[in-house]
Design a protein that fits this description.
The protein is of the alpha/beta class. It contains 34 helices and 23 strands. Helix 4 packs antiparallel against helix 5, helix 9 packs parallel to helix 10 and helix 29 packs across helix 30. Oxidizes proline to glutamate for use as a carbon and nitrogen source.
């Protein structure tokens, strides 16, 4: 059985879920049963430190709640006092704790925070001695407060400590059971994965020592594990490797749990990992059936907010029956909602894989609950929820089904509701209990706060007396409307007539990627005849003749042609992706992104041309009219690079055509076939052949001849700084009009990381920025500047993560790093590596370990200083320098050193100190600045791209100022009184 594609209309899915619940649930009765529980909780509210109380006093939608969340997320991991002081001052300084709270204890806490702020520095400036002593005291107190906060949501920092706490809870409520979750996010390195494996192993051993192996697993405590913590490449593209390496690791844990009679649950993760998780789960289920058939403790967590949740339950049930197993199934709402929404928007997917209305998720949860209760032979349901209405509905359906089940809650949450539930029912309750160091609390705490702190969540509203109980327990069993709560990804930029977002595909979904692989088999790289450079003057003359006709074409007609070409390119995405893989050696992910960027350029510049080329009336004295117009300049030479042979080529050409200019397009010598196919689309859309000419050949002959030819009205170029200088000099030396040059060139792109940044997020951003596309992006990370306090740990993680990348054939989905464009590029990179071997400290395997030919494995070096990086290495080579000591103790000085390199294309800043990020961005002479993310993948109309200094002339491509450079300005003034008086003025006289 295959699951459906996750991207389906939400209303259709909800209608199906509602139909599955018909006759199965009396919500009125459920709400009546839940009402006394809510009333009791409101009469006896949880203590101040409980999450429900915290969310009520400091909601995450407020500046105060956000400040506390950010401090809890970052402060414990900051190793140096200066950064800890700056972080505390930044976050507390952004909120007003005076007069924000309701209860007596929280008012005292707010007053203490407000008073403490007086000892903290303002802005990112070091305090004086006395202030520093006061600031250190405030930070120490804040650290203690955050640790106390952590204790509310982490059962123990070690498994032994957690089990002691659990035994104490057992003495108070004997019916409680526990499922221990060892805190930690996905592994970035194999060392991380092995450390998590050891942690799980030790935990199972400890739990087993206190368990009764003779009891059924549902009566014992258990453990939850994350598959992404046990393998550094837990992703669909690495399926074969995951099945080979991960399944044996998990089986070790399964054997230990089975022998002790424990339950072991595989936690749910992101949507793009679902099919892979199922493959792993089924492989393990088959082994359980063969080797431990009596064990009834193997389980899987299921997310009700996924639109495929009900089909997933049917699939898991079928697996259980096929292998004659009884599986444990934990039903949760889901904790990655915001990440799933963003991913769908970024990929341009047709629909969201999760529900966008809260009550739709509630409907799905109830439908899934009924399905689980209907299969007692195959599954033992575990319902994780803090919603009193949902609990009452489950109890009602379970009584009708006469099926065994259990309820679950998170440690530190829902205690009040479950206190009342356990008084009125004997249903077993299990506590999902995180275990780990408080500094590892980050992802867990943030997810819990976001999941339960939303204004619409039951937990958030439970203690709010302003929310009527009837409203709180209102039935979710209705379909509001056909539209999702958010614009669908194709309509990300607004409803029609706004620009439609380009459509992408999810490579993790087999039916969506199948057309790409099919296109690879049927797509050939066409041959293209080289242009004779001697014909350049003739080509320019033909372009000038065409210009006289093309400029008269209404801008609306020109824009319509670009949109038609964009639609055609969107339809032919698989074929163009295959071309990019074959001719430019793109990986599939990069190929899809590039086709989408080209589509976006065509649509964006069509819109922009219609916007800017409308005449603008200017104010002036009575009796005359003044109008500003933009006009086309003439033939433009467009010289594009091989690293984005479709997107940049299309963007240059579309900008010139949209504004009424004609084009002489000179594509990169290495990738002419992609350019040829793009030109064919534009010609088919109505652009005249002589208005858009493709002139393929070497830059030093064809490109140079076109630049030097008389009659060229402008040149747009993307490539190296050296070639841009040559073009600039050639244009300056020409007689006749001064010809504009738009140049986007390279950069020594840097990323500054302070000690408040999360190392795992830094490493993800670094590996993507430095090594994706084999480092052959203008925006690729070349220089990483790490704070000394975290440098060793981050460097070690980068080494491990980079070592996990696969270099090879870009046509394979498993390939991360393809070959560089040609032998000349490879030789140039190897010369740089030889130099660095003698000047810097090598951090990764020698270049000789690369797979040969034009393949170069990721390389990294620690260099003595920022100043020692003097040139761009256009390949997968990262150089790392440190700051935080001596002359470079101030991050502002780091930015000045980066500015002094002379380039100014992209900059990354990784910090949790918001004011620092803004101050450093203001100081940097850089075109694109990215905070707490990677520095590649600029999106048309969202992140206009381009730099300054040695990185280009501007204006920024894909931005609202770009098309103006392709135009001349014309002002028309008409004396309206010339015909004998100012009639308009006279008519206004009373």
């Amino acid at each position: 059985m295959h699951l459906p594609i996750p991207y389906r209309p939400e209303a259709d899915v909800v209608s199906h879920r509602l139909a599955s619940l018909e006759g199965a649930l009396d919500w009125t009765a459920a709400a009546a049963a839940a009402t006394p529980w809510v009333e009791a909780v409101r009469r006896h509210p949880p203590p101040f430190w409980a999450m429900e109380s915290l969310l009520r006093e400091y909601p995450i939608s407020s500046a105060e709640g956000l400040a506390l969340m950010r401090l809890a997320e970052a402060l414990l991991r900051v190793p140096d006092a200066a950064t800890a002081i700056a972080l505390t001052a930044d976050q507390l300084g952004r909120a007003d704790f005076e007069g924000t709270a309701d209860s007596t204890l929280s008012r005292l806490s707010s007053a203490a925070i407000a008073m403490s702020k007086k000892f903290l520095p303002e802005g990112d400036h070091p305090p004086g001695l006395m202030a520093k002593l006061g600031a250190r005291t405030v930070v120490a107190a804040t650290l203690r407060a955050v640790q106390l906060l952590g204790r509310q949501f982490v059962l123990g920092q070690t498994i032994a400590e957690a089990m002691d706490e659990a035994r104490s809870a057992h003495r108070k409520q004997d019916a409680l059971r526990f499922s221990y979750d060892m805190l930690g996010e996905g592994a970035r390195t194999d060392a991380d994965a092995l450390r998590y494996l050891d942690s799980y192993t030790q935990a199972i051993g400890a739990i087993a020592a206190g368990a009764d192996a003779a009891r059924a697993p549902e009566h014992n405590d258990g453990i939850s594990i994350k598959l992404s913590a046990l393998h550094p490449r837990y992703e669909d593209a690495q399926r074969e490797r995951v099945m080979r390496e991960l399944v044996p690791r998990v089986w070790q844990l399964c054997e230990l749990a089975a022998d002790a009679g424990l339950n072991l649950t595989i936690d749910a993760e992101e949507v793009d990992r679902l099919e892979l998780s199922l493959d792993v789960f089924e492989a393990l289920a088959a082994r359980v059936a063969a080797e431990r058939p009596q064990w009834r403790g193997f389980g899987l967590a299921l997310q009700a907010y996924q639109t495929r949740a009900l089909e997933l339950i049917a699939h898991v049930t079928a697996v259980a029956r096929r292998h004659k197993l009884r599986l444990m199934c934990r039903l949760v709402k889901g904790a990655y909602w915001d990440a799933e929404i963003k991913r769908a928007q970024e990929l341009g997917l047709p629909h969201y894989p999760v529900f966008t209305h809260k009550h739709h998720s509630d409907v799905s949860y109830l439908a899934c609950a009924r399905a689980l209760l209907s299969a007692p032979d195959a599954v033992y349901p575990q319902f994780a929820t803090h919603n009193a209405g949902t609990i009452a509905a489950i109890l009602q359906m379970a009584e009708a089904a006469q099926a065994p089940f259990e309820l679950q809650r998170l440690h530190g949450m829902g205690e009040g509701v479950y206190r009342e539930v356990m008084k009125s029912t004997d249903a077993p309750v299990r506590v999902y209990a995180p275990v780990g160091q408080h500094k590892d609390l980050l992802a867990y705490l943030v997810r819990r706060l976001l999941e339960n702190g939303a204004n619409s969540s039951f937990v958030n509203q439970l203690g709010d007396e302003d929310v009527d109980i009837g409203e709180l327990l209102m039935s979710p069993l209705w379909l509001e409307e056909a539209n999702p709560a958010l614009p669908l990804p194709p309509a990300l930029y607004g409803p029609a007539p706004a620009r439609r977002n380009s459509e992408g595909i999810d490579l993790a979904v087999e039916p969506m990627r199948a057309p790409l692989l099919a296109a690879l088999e049927t797509t050939a790289v066409p041959g293209i005849e080289a242009f004779d450079a001697a014909g350049a003057p003739k080509a320019v003359a033909a372009s000038a003749a065409a210009f006289r006709r093309w400029r008269k074409t209404p801008v609306e007609a020109r824009a319509a042609m670009l949109r038609q070409a964009a639609d055609a390119l969107q339809r032919e995405l698989p074929r163009f992706c295959a071309l990019l893989v074959k001719e430019a050696f793109k990986t599939w992910g990069d190929a899809v992104a590039e086709v989408r960027e080209a589509v976006d350029f065509l649509r964006y510049y069509a819109d922009e041309a219609e916007r800017i080329m409308q005449p603008v009336a200017l104010p002036g004295p009575t009796g005359e009219s003044n109008e500003l117009r933009l006009t086309a300049r003439g033939p433009w030479v467009c010289i594009s690079p091989w690293n984005f042979p479709l997107a940049i080529f299309t963007g240059q050409v579309a900008a010139a055509l949209a504004t009424g200019n004609t084009v002489l397009a000179k594509p990169a010598e290495q990738t002419p076939a992609i350019a040829l196919e793009a030109v064919k689309l534009l010609h088919a859309a109505g652009v005249p052949a002589d208005a858009l000419q493709l002139l393929h050949g070497p830059g030093e002959t064809v490109g140079a001849a076109l630049v030097a030819a008389p009659g060229v009205a402008g040149v747009v170029f993307t490539g190296s700084t050296q070639v841009a200088r040559i073009i600039h000099r050639a244009l300056a030396a020409k007689d006749g009009p001064i010809v504009p040059l738009i140049a986007e060139t390279g950069g020594i792109n840097a990323m500054l990381v302070d000690s408040s940044a999360l190392p795992e997020q830094v490493v993800d951003a670094v590996v993507q920025s430095a090594f994706r596309s084999a480092g052959q992006r203008c925006s690729a990370l070349r220089l990483l500047v790490l704070h000394d306090g975290i440098a060793e740990a981050v460097i070690e993680m980068i080494r491990g993560a980079a070592g996990e990348l696969t270099a090879g054939d870009p046509a394979l989905l498993s390939t991360d790093v393809g070959p560089v464009i040609d032998g000349e590029a490879a030789d140039n990179i190897r010369r740089h590596l030889k130099r660095l071997d003698s000047e810097a400290k090598r951090l990764l395997a020698p270049a000789s370990s690369s797979t040969g030919g034009n393949l170069i494995a990721p390389q990294a070096y620690e260099v003595p200083s920022i100043d020692s990086v003097t040139s761009e290495i256009f390949g997968p080579v990262l150089q790392i320098a440190r700051w935080g000591q001596g002359e470079l103790s101030d991050p502002a000085e780091v930015i000045e050193r980066i500015n002094a390199l002379g380039y100014g294309l992209t900059l990354g800043i990784q910090t949790r100190i918001d004011s620092r990020a803004q101050a450093l961005a203001t100081r940097a002479h850089v075109g694109n600045i990215y905070v707490n993310r990677n520095i590649i993948g600029a999106v048309v109309g969202v992140q206009p791209f381009g730099g300054e200094g040695l990185s280009g002339t501007g204006p920024k491509a894909g931005g609202p100022h770009y098309l103006y450079r392709f135009c001349a300005e014309q002002t028309v003034t008409v004396n309206t009184t010339a015909a004998g008086g100012n009639a308009a003025l006279l008519s206004t006289v009373a």
